[in-house]
Input
Amino acid sequence: MTGRTIERNPTVTDILHTDTDTDTGPRAAGVSFHRPGPPGRLGRTGLVLTVVLAVVAALVAAGVVLGLASPSTADLTGRWAMTVTIHSQDPPQVVALTCDFGADHHLRCLNVPGTAPLEGNGVWNSADGGRFGFWITHHAQLDAQGRPTGSIYAEHLGRLEGGRFTTHGLTFVDMHDGSPWMGPVAVEAVADRVR
Output
């Protein structure tokens, strides 16, 4: 292939096996490639890569043994007393809920007696470092006169620390009357583990 100019986009094989110094070859851009050595021969680059991989594997193993691996995932399973702040008006609306986070990653929130009707269902999942997220839908709530106040769709991202978590997120409201959805509306929550 010496001296051959590549007329199309080069493949990896073309680049690795091109010995041209023309202005269309890889060396024109200042790139230098080395052909692999004969089969069965590790070479200096292969030896360095092997040593680096062995050191990384040893560090990972030591981290697992010494407990230095990434922190455990947030386990929200159980009942939580939650206070949600909804920034849809001034001052913001504050609602108290009791929420059950199931081992099946479903959640159900019930009103605390005497508060706004925000019962809802959703799903949750966790990540490393105590981080988690949940999505909840509060369907077609009714006001004191029995009029629908719409369905609320909210997502929360949060962090669990001990027996307390905090979240922030956004919510959208569908009034089911053909009007555009309201939102996004900022929401926050603070919750303490009940059991």
Remarks:
- Residues 4-37, 45-71 have pLDDT under 50 and may be disordered.
- The chain has two domains: 12-65, 78-193.
